[in-house]
Design a protein that fits this description.
By secondary structure, this protein is α+β, with helices and mostly antiparallel strands. The protein has helices spanning 7-20, 45-55, 57-63, 142-156; strands at residues 27-42, 66-81, 85-88, 98-101, 105-111, 118-123, 127-132. It has a 7-stranded antiparallel β-sheet, covered by helices on one side. It starts with 6 loop residues before the first helix and ends in an 11-residue tail after the last helix.
Length: 167
């Protein structure tokens, strides 16, 4: 049983949405890549001068430190399905496209997430890429779009989960 009816009805809805937003062409999205990126923050010279003037040595001591934190690597970009795998436009540090071959993809699933639904792609080595299609029009249901793209990816995904080897 599908979301609102028999599974065939859901596949028909998915196909309609995929026709209007072809995943084989570039589709605008927000991508959360695996891993974290270190962000270093320090007080600007202007803020340090103001704090020193207002609070003396205590102000200087408070603003002289460096804060570092780790944040998820999230970017607004484009996504498409290619013949050899999945491509994310300019997702590498050097500005190159991130190309993920079918052999490195284990599966793709639709995840219900507030406020936006997302597509989760599981890669080898317990890595995941999460893709949000926030810019779909009001008439293009993101649920059906994510499910349709997941179905297309799962048809070609070849990666084997390390726990599943030998079964």
């Amino acid at each position: 049983m599908g979301l609102f009816g028999p599974p065939d009805e859901d596949i028909d809805e998915e196909n309609k949405v995929l026709e209007s937003n072809n995943p084989y062409d570039w589709v605008k999205c927000k991508v959360e890549l695996p891993g974290f990126e270190m962000v270093i923050e320090s007080a600007s010279p202007w803020a340090r001068g103001l704090a020193t003037g207002a609070f003396g040595l205590v102000g200087l001591a408070v603003t002289s430190g460096v804060n570092q934190s780790y944040e998820r690597n999230v970017l607004n970009t484009y996504f498409r399905i290619a013949d050899k795998g999945v491509v994310i436009f300019q997702a590498c540090k050097d500005g190159a496209d991130l190309r993920i071959p079918w052999d490195n993809i284990i599966s793709a699933t639709y995840i219900r997430h507030n406020p936006y639904d997302k597509l989760r792609i599981r890669l080898l080595k317990n890595q995941t890429i999460e893709i949000y299609f926030n810019d779909l029009s009001f008439f293009d249901n993101p649920i059906h779009y994510c499910r349709g793209v997941a179905r297309l990816i799962n048809e070609k995904a070849c990666g084997i989960n390390p726990e599943d080897e030998g079964w």
